[in-house]
Every structure is written in C-alpha cells, then in structure tokens.
Amino acid sequence: MPSGERPSGARSERGFTYLGVLVLVSLIGLALAAAGEVTATAVQREREAQLLWVGHEYRAAIARYWVLKRAYPQSLEDLLGSAPDDLLPVRYIRRLYRDPMTNAVDWVLLQAPPPAGGIMGVASSSKRAPLKTSGFDIADRDFEDASTYGDWQFTFQPGVVRRRSP
After folding, report:
1. Rounded to an integer, what distance in angstroms lies between the CA atom of residue 11 and that of residue 95?
2. For the segment 14-29, what is each residue's pLDDT rounded down to a tens digit?
3. How many angstroms separate the CA atoms of 125 and 152, rounded?
4. Which of 16, 39, 91, 125 is most deeply buried (CB count within 10 A of its CB)?
5. What is this structure's pTM?
6. Terminal-to-terminal C-alpha distance of the chain
7. At 111, phi and psi to the nearest 5?
8. Can you name the residues that pair with 99 across neighbouring β-strands?
C-alpha cells in the first residue's frame, strides 16, 4: 500500500462514527429536557403546597381577628398586631407571607360584603393553571373547579365552619 493512503473501509467507518455521536448527543438532549420538565413540575407542586399552607394561615388569622374584634381587618397589616389603644397586644399572624406563585406580597384582597367591609380573605394574583385539581381538604373543595391559582380563594365567613380533613 503506498504511503499516505488509507484502507478503503476506514473512510466509510468515519461517517458511522459521526452519526453515532450525533444520535448520542440527541439522546442526551432529550433526557435533559425530560429531567428539566420533571423538575419544573416538582417545583410547581411544592409551590402549590406552600400556597395552600399560606392561604390557610391567612384564613385562620382573619378568623382570629374576627373572633376578638367582631370585624374584618381593613388591611393585611392589621393582622400583624393590635392597635396601640388595645389593652392586650395580639398578633394574628406571624408575618405577611409572600404569594408562592408570584414570590411577592401581591395578594388579591377579597373584600367582605357591606355593611361589614374589610378583608375577608386572600387569593393569589397568579393566572397560571394549577396542577392540582382534586384531593383537596373539605375546606378547600371549591378549588377543584378552579382554572387559575387566583380562583383558590382563602376566605373566612363567620358561621361557616371549614374543617380540614384529618
């Protein structure tokens, strides 16, 4: 064989190696895309669970405020503590929680009907569609029909007993 020449089979094998590497890179890309989607879904489910917890905290704080004052709070800040003229300082909620879906304190405040006035609940300002559509607590059974997280309304109404399932 003259020097510098290749065997005839080596030239055709180079194309197969290139094609094999191309298929391998494509498969790795598909696997990474699938892993990214699984991770995004897991993060959204965690945020949903956090939204339910925070919403229940706001609902309970408004209920505690109602029991002591027989009125709804006029702002979320009212839940942080009593007015200076109150004899017994009371905190109804530990802090103002962020909306887990928007990562901001930008809750939609649900107003109580007149003549009571005030805030009777909160809802997320997110317009994303929820992943969770069933398996809610009894207190949240209306959430099954929700098309967005904003439809998950955490309200307190005096005389309406909302129990969480055990």
Report:
1. 71
2. 677 888 888 888 888 8
3. 10
4. 125
5. 0.75
6. 84
7. -80, 140
8. 104
